[in-house]
Amino acid sequence: MKKILFAAILSAFSCAAALAAGDWASFGRYAEANKAVSKPPLAVLMGDSITDAWPKKTPGDFFAKNNIVGRGISGQVTSQMLARFRRDVLDLKPKYVAILAGTNDIAQNQGYIAVENIFGNIVSMVEIAKANGVIPIVCSVLPANKYPWRQEIKPAPLVKKLNEMLKAYCGKNAVKYVDYYTPMADDKDGLPKKYANDGIHPTPEGYAVMEKILLPALK
Asked: Do the beta carbons of residue 52 and residue 73 sit within 8 Å?
């Protein structure tokens, strides 16, 4: 529980620091890292803390070995990702962008937002990618039946609704859809302990499952 609370506090502190610096979307987080990208990556992974922690928690070298770049920022909602999409995705000229986003919107990290508007932000990122020659991949939101930092919210039905909307959109618009939800969800529509100790942020075993699902979509 202490680790969960610390992660939540750290996420809140990071967001507060960015806001205090007048950088709501955290453009500065990857500014130097983006300059250091010497060749176009196969894919950029756009997301929040789940993507942010991915390279730190995986024992293998999934990112470097497959020429993948992570651009996740802990605590972010889809509006913030949409704002920094040009700097952190398009400027790197990847072949693919895999978008894993929406759970922090449901958690109301930046206040209430309707599922339809979360969906709209993700669709906007997809459309921007397509308009600039980047192949978009939409990833399902991971299962969640509670948020340690927002225990009053019941996310499971909202996660399901958002995923259904995203899957239907991808089917109608020939966009790749990566389904993490189905193979990872437990009987309570959450993530089991083996995949996420706090029910939200994947363990190395959870990331291993995600890597096996994502990689075929990139090749």
From this structure: yes
Distance from C-alpha of 87 to C-alpha of 166, rounded to nearest angstrom: 24
Cα-Cα end-to-end distance for the chain? 39
- What separation in angstroms does the CA of 112 have from each of 116, 117, 197? 12, 10, 26
Give me the mean pLDDT over the 39-59 stretch.
Answer: 95
Task: State which amino acid sits at residue 71.
Answer: R
What backbone torsions phi and psi does residue 59 show, to the nearest 5 degrees?
-70, -30
Contact predicate 75/12, CB 8 Å: yes
- Note the residue count of the chain: 219
- Give the pLDDT confidence of 70-117 residue by residue, as tens digits: 999 999 999 999 999 999 999 999 999 999 999 999 999 999 999 999
**Dist. CA 125–CA 103, nearest whole Å:** 16
Selection from 79, 83, 57, 78 nearest residue 70 by Cα: 57
Cα distance between residue 29 and residue 102, in whole Å: 20
CA separation for the pair 85, 103 (Å, rounded): 18
Q: Could you tell me the domains of the chain?
A: 2-218 (3.40.50.1110)
The total of other beta-carbon atoms located within 10 Å of residue 35's CB is 9
Q: How far apart are CA 177 and CA 182, in angstroms?
A: 12
Q: Among 60, 61, 109, 59, which Cα is nearest to 81's?
A: 109
pLDDT surpassing 60 at residue 1: no
pTM of the model: 0.90
